[in-house]
Amino acid sequence: MSKQSLLFYGGKILTMSDGIESAEAVAVKGNEIVCVGSYEECEASLQGQGEIREINLKGKSLLPGFVDPHAHLMMLGMAYSWADISYPKVKSIGDIIAVLREQKKKTPAGSIIRGFGLDQRNLEEKRYPTADELDEVAEDCPVQIMHISGHNNVVNNYLLQELGINKNVDDPIGGAIGRYENGLPNGQLFDSANDHFAKKSGVVIGSNGPNIHMPDTPENLQNLVAVGQKQCLLSGVTTINDPQVTKQEMESFQEARNNNLLKMRIVMSILSTYLDELTQLGFRSGFGDDQLSIGSIKLYADGSLNSGTAYLSSGYLDSSRKQGYLYHEPERFKEILVKAHRQGFQTITHAQGDGAIQLVIDGVRASQEQSPRSDVRHRIEHCGLPDPAQIQDISELKIWPVPQPQHVYQFGEGVVRAVGDHGDNFSPYGWFKDQNIPIVLSSDAPVAPPNPLQAIYAAVTRSTLQGNVVGADHRISLTEALKGYTIEAAKAIHREDSIGSIEKGKLADFVILDKNPYDTSVEEIPTIEVSETWISGEQVY
């Protein structure tokens, strides 16, 4: 923690608070903001506090550090460590094979060849690759590519055999194994079927979510923390809520903290796999400190809209899997959510399709009927395609949706092609505004990069990667978007008393932008550069 006194001035200071919207200066002592106001007021607040370091912003803008309430830190590090097979870098299965062949040249002989970012809807073939096609990369070593959503992988035949997946292996609950017409596995592993990666060594999570926790050495896991953190800090993100923490992530975060590697703040959402153990030990939301804490329990209701496995009543036009599937039977899901609620946890549930969103609504209603609690802020992660009738229930039950505007930017057109015109209501912020439901932004990194400025642009414009607009009625204002990535995001993780706005008594977490978003055209918002990132009064980028 910094012990120096700091005085920021000379630029536009956007507080994101409901009181003073902007200020001339900010004074910091140690890790805390001690004054927000005029230069004279802030300077006076630091008198007698030792040497004052004045920081002239030189016309740049100071904002509270961005808060990302849904970002997978180690998975982000993993994505940057694997070959990039995302669109538009790759546009066909042939492109994927070419990229992986180049990756093979840089990979030690016999080691696994990996790529991240598959998006089948943007490929020329409009389908997933197969094991036979990945054999064109290598037949004598494992090859694995992960979907951009993290909800499925495709592997070559070598790795299928290594994982013990053959025609006699059944589909798991909450997942599926892709198959050729003759019934043999075709290398495609959906949702809970990804547990096969961890059965020999690693974290097995069962039907509690897609297994993104690839087995690795402790040294490599620390590297994933470092790489993921670097991407967040250079984007001005000072706090994340990691929405899928297992033993592997918790141990890695603690190790990084012990070695002074961890700079940012992490609120952990522990996967529901561990709910019984946490209950027996008496844990609940809020355990920990300002840097590393347990925030909530993470549940999964369904799969992914991007991969075609979310549970939609309308079904899909581009898949034989018409409605996706649920991770739990409705009564079992309700039982888990009610138990977490009763124990004192906030819950955050991945629910994309309306059928899955209904499970959350029913579970929260049952929880409050059985064990009333105030201001719990149970959340629906993504809340991709709710039915309009569900919006009133979400409002009345005070459920917080946490969507990702970049998903509309990256995948919106594919969702519309897959589900029809009601795909325009993907991440329906307009409906949330109509019912006074909180507006929260996040990235779901690495599904989208932890780039708040791109997310803010996407939320304000509803533009897509292809240059079109999806769901213009769901546009929000620049102020709503900025607050959605700062103070409203902090509220989503119950941390608004310490972060999310520039106010006296809060932690000195800041991002300095080279331009004021309000003085920039909307189209130029994604080009605004992060000049500096500060956490607890220390410059970390």
UniProtKB/TrEMBL annotation:
Record protein name field: Amidohydrolase family protein
PANTHER family reported for this sequence: IMIDAZOLONEPROPIONASE (PTHR22642), PROTEIN LONG AFTER FAR-RED 3 (PTHR22642:SF2)
Molecular function terms from GO: hydrolase activity, acting on carbon-nitrogen (but not peptide) bonds
Residues annotated as domain Amidohydrolase: 53-541
SUPFAM superfamilies from the UniProt entry: Composite domain of metallo-dependent hydrolases (SSF51338), Metallo-dependent hydrolases (SSF51556)
Domain of life of the organism encoding this protein: Bacteria
Protein's UniProt keywords contain Ribosomal protein: no
Keyword annotations of the record: Hydrolase
Keyword Magnesium among UniProt keywords: no
